[in-house]
Amino acid sequence: MSLDNIDFIRDLSAKRMAAVPTGFRRYLYNRIDWRDRLIMVKGARGTGKTTLMLQRMREVMPDPEKALYVSLDHLWFADHPLYDVAEFHALHGGTHLFIDEVHYQRNWQQLLKSVYDDFPELSIVYTGSSLLKLEASGADLSRRQVPYALAGLSFREYLAFEGVPAPAAVSLEDVLGNHAAIAADMAGKGKVLPHFYAYLERGYYPFYKEVYGGYGQRVEATINQVLENDYPSVEDVTFATIQKAKKMLVILAAHAPQTPNMSALYRELETDRNQGLKMLSVLERAELLNLLPSKSATLKNMSRPERIYCDNPNIMAALVERPDVGCMRETFFANQLKAAGHEIAYPPAGDFLVDGAHLFEVGGKRKSFAQIKDLPDSYLAVDDLEVGHGSRVPLWMLGMLY
Fold this sequence. Notes:
By secondary structure, this protein is an alpha/beta fold. The chain is built from 13 helices and twelve strands. The strands form three sheets. It has a five-stranded parallel β-sheet with strand order 2-3-4-1-5. A five-stranded mixed β-sheet has the order 8-9-10-11-12. Strand 8 and strand 9 form a beta hairpin. Helix 8 (215-234) packs across helix 12 (313-319).
């Protein structure tokens, strides 16, 4: 490949790196061991994967001769092979290659394996859609790469992004044992609840800083991009299936949470059980839905979720004209616990069983222990509460986990 052919991409890389903001870094930035030669950052569209890579370039490798950023959804790659770009970069002194939107390359696994094996002088960081099946057949990257997953902003990160004093991330055990002291310290610096309610409406996706009145439309556009562009890039699907998946998401957003009547849902979508389960799986993998199993799930019923939520409250706010307050609370709880790496299930009593041990009931300030009073290790996650006490934990405190 000649230098003339690659100048466009090199200039674009330098411009993207120079423009990226560096004042705020996501929680994952310092968790990544950047010394590894092949790093994957997977996550939902809009969560900030590109910014994460560009920040790494700007802060550590600002020399454009050494580090190159490319995005495989760019039209330039329609007739310019990535392998040739990697070869040129390595031959001309490059040491780091940052690859965005890898799922737009059909043979991405084999391609990355070849680049990794053929150019040992290159360190590679790449991003991919949360829809990607890492266990898919093809080249074996598991022995070569270190994978990471990037969730959307936690409430704690949102506060930091807004310049509001917030603690470092705390463990669930610290929240349950020390929430009163942590919350009292934060309350002494200003009101938390107004920020919390703003976050539920518009705060999970970092791009909220770029839009104002049109944030809901931007979330909808992101959903459409996931289903219309990312979904077909990783699965062989028809236009009709994509439209049904959209309809399924809107229906479930309007009626969640629920113990779903799957047969009625499939009839409304004019589809069968197998196709319906595939669409549910895709919407969950795309981080648009959160499917909760039952505590007593068996091999017979494990394919049917016990509760269905939107993945995060911002999706619900964008798709539902008047979201139910109780559902928004539960959606927030499920999202933050799952993003922090905890296992959540739907229990026989209460709203959530966390890590098979902690039982939670979620509700407003007047919520009582009536439903879970005799159950061990049980807590109320209470909205409209700045500072809690005992087993009454402010709901917003569950956003301090990452």
